[in-house]
């Protein structure tokens, strides 16, 4: 009998479908500062290429082409942007009560400035900036939307520090 030790897996990337690939690359690179590691390009449904076959495996046969771009955060997490010619081009319904991806979170110590920039680029601030543990830690958070209606959260400090006991405790 073999025993295997469980270990925490790292986060590789997230895929986000957007209505306009060029506008999304502009927003995420200029507002978030994410590195563009692959400019927008077109993928065609074709069994002769590895990417074409893989996408047929993932998406099935009901597509012909789509656009894709790859970005990366400062800590190396990938952001894969997709834009399909067909499909709904409006903001997804915000329904955190249903099963599925609710949001992703990014981190920036200057939360106020980042929110101003998000709004200036057509995004929205969904709530006031709130303090986590206001008596004990200088941590803040806020939910926002990108210009395409995709909801995400901003933390001023790392996830580990935010939820660990004793971090920044008086």
User: What structural category do the secondary elements indicate?
Assistant: alpha+beta
Query: How many individual helices?
Result: 4
The overall pLDDT average reads: 93
Integer-rounded radius of gyration: 19 Å
Backbone shape: globular
How much of the sequence is in beta strands?
A: 25-35%
Low-confidence stretches: none
In N-to-C order, the SSE pattern is: EHEHEEEHEEEEH
Q: In this structure, how is the largest beta sheet organized?
A: 5 strands, mixed
Number of strands: 9
Helix content: 10-25%
Q: Distance between the terminal alpha carbons, to the nearest Å?
A: 49 Å
Task: Report on the architecture of this protein.
This is VOC family protein. It comes from Algibacter miyuki. The strands form 2 sheets. Strands 5, 6, 7, 8 and 9 form a 5-stranded mixed β-sheet that branches. A 4-stranded mixed β-sheet has the order 1-4-3-2, with helices on one face. About 15% of the residues are buried. The protein is about 20% helix and about 30% strand. With about 170 residues, the chain is an alpha+beta fold. The model has no long low-confidence stretch (mean pLDDT about 95). It is globular. The protein starts with 12 loop residues before the first strand and ends in a 7-residue tail after the last helix. The chain has helices at about 20-30, 50-60, 110-120, 160-165; strands at about 15, 35-45, 65-70, 80-85, 105, 125, 130, 140-145, 150-155.
């Amino acid at each position: 009998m073999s025993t295997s030790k469980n270990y925490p897996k790292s986060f590789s990337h997230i895929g986000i479908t957007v209505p306009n690939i060029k506008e999304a690359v502009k927003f995420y690179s200029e507002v978030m500062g994410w590195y563009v590691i692959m400019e927008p390009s077109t993928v065609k449904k074709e069994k002769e290429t590895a990417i074409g076959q893989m996408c047929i495996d993932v998406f099935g046969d009901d597509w012909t082409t789509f656009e894709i771009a790859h970005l990366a955060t400062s800590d190396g997490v990938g952001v894969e942007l997709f834009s399909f010619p067909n499909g709904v081009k409006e903001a997804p319904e915000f329904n955190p009560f249903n099963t599925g991806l609710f949001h992703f979170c990014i981190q920036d110590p200057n939360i106020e400035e980042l929110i101003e920039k998000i709004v200036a680029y057509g995004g929205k601030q969904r709530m006031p900036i709130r303090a986590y543990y206001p008596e004990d830690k200088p941590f803040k958070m806020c939910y926002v939307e990108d210009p395409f209606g995709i909801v995400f959260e901003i933390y001023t400090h790392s996830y580990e520090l935010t939820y660990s006991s004793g971090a920044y405790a008086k």
